[in-house]
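Notes continue from the previous slide.

Worked example: a multi-chain complex. Inputs as given:
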Amino acid sequence: MKLASLNHGRDGQLIVVSRDLKMAVHAHDIAPTLQFALDNWHEVEADLQHLYRNLNDGIAQHTFPFNLALCSSPLPRAYQWADGSAYVNHVELVRKARGADMPESFWTDPLMYQGMSDGFLAPTEDIKVADEQWGIDFEGEIAIVTDDIAMGTRTEEVHGHIKLLMLVNDVSLRNLIPAELAKGFGFFQSKPSSAFSPVAVTPDELGNSWHDYKLHHRLTVHLNGELFGQPHAGTDMTFNFAELIQHVAKSRAICAGSIIGSGTVSNKDRSSGSCCLAERRMLEILEYGHAETPFMKFGDTVKIEMFDDSGHSIFGAIEQTVVRYKHHYHDEDLNHHNPHHQQ
Amino acid sequence: MKLASLNHGRDGQLIVVSRDLKMAVHAHDIAPTLQFALDNWHEVEADLQHLYRNLNDGIAQHTFPFNLALCSSPLPRAYQWADGSAYVNHVELVRKARGADMPESFWTDPLMYQGMSDGFLAPTEDIKVADEQWGIDFEGEIAIVTDDIAMGTRTEEVHGHIKLLMLVNDVSLRNLIPAELAKGFGFFQSKPSSAFSPVAVTPDELGNSWHDYKLHHRLTVHLNGELFGQPHAGTDMTFNFAELIQHVAKSRAICAGSIIGSGTVSNKDRSSGSCCLAERRMLEILEYGHAETPFMKFGDTVKIEMFDDSGHSIFGAIEQTVVRYKHHYHDEDLNHHNPHHQQ
């Protein structure tokens, strides 16, 4: 089935969306929010699936046209966003461009960072950045959403724990990364809020394109209306989602509603293009000695989507514009301010 | 006021606790959970404060003895756990012990990592670790809980945004850290679930001991019943909580209920001891050329608390035992498992 959240309150309002993304219906009688549904999946799944069937069959009541511009992220905020870097070929390329070898262990031990999850951008929300010089980039990825998973769970036990899949735009501030990683504690300011596809889908919805814990479709990225890349997400994925879950669960349990990302989708076949500017710039550095493609400027747009074999959008599109963020300083906030004694 | 959560459901059940930590009263008519209270602070604060006054005055109804063994973490799960390393003296020491200089910028640019927040240990819950060889350590810290904070907020605008303070045991798996940090993406498996003090307190509760956005009391740590350290949390804190908030907010907004940690409390005055085993081991390496104090073993206990000037516990104690974790493989999970096609 396909689920989405209308932009309402802090956690959205759960709706069920038809397979063709044309119609929707409120699910509040079953679960008010997607996080509630994930927290109580065993109790709500059958009712949600029933509603989804009725919606597709045209017999659900109180339906309305699906408008993805009214959606928040399926999970507007989440308890976990753990992002892997499963397309190791991409990592190797980044290293090669700066003249560094990649350790052999990167082919067997997944790279992963803990991302911020306290607020995600809506799929059509502007990407607000204070400074264009921070090196604004998109990253097209696949993500899964899990239920509760015990500490120590291994790949062979992962079956059934992947409840939903989504697309991601993992916004990155490339020029903040080198100094931040040099400090040794990983990404922080260089990874602001990510955006997810309007619709999250259950694995059964994907049919034969979901196997080996990989999603076997191309991920299509447009920059300012022009095709930028469409690498195949099922190709060159060194670590599948079962292996990424095992990595997360090594020393801790995983809470329902946790989101785990694949990292930038990337193929060794260069003709399929890239899912982020950084990769294209690396290829230019290797070819010409310098990068030619600039990072995103204010006004630039990125569109990330995935089509099934019949050319229909599966998740709806992430479509975002980069805009300048201006922080407004509120003097009234300071009326009672004494910097040496906060009450 | 003082707030806690009874262990109930995924998000606990909010209670108000008396100043002396002896009595409590349910707050469910005002806010079912602490996250709900933080999401709606302006609407609920006055009612919670009123209930707190009545509880302390002995005129609240339906009160019951406060039992911290029945508490979950004040926030059993949270949307953000961002942990700084504000006692830079500690960072310098760690570096010195391995013969590395610390960059000068560490004195002006805070170190911070994104921690996992999808599940925290209760204050008296066992620390379950699969392998003693992972180098099990505690870290005594102070943490704040914020309301919503706009992107770009600066130190001079932070006033009023710190809603609660807590103590933390930031459990660390020291022997997993070097390999993990060498990969460049920061901590992940080496930072399992943290534990927080049973009680979270509002800044007004701390009187003159809360100023300059620092908490001016000693943090007391006992290991296996013996005093291990009691450094002063207001001394040698290079970055105060206003500066840590500014660091988090540089490229993103902060959601209500976000937890920001100070990092291990540490004083230059060595006679006050340490708040983690790693620091004592570093001091031993510098003095004797090798570490003498082992990491925690199964059965070891750690107790972290803070007393006011009259010797009363402010937050209640974190008191935890390290135990061996055994993952049970459930064959029934695999009944329908086909590794090459997950439905």
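Summary box: Chain B has six helices and 20 strands. Chain B touches chain A through 77 residues (CB under 8 Å).
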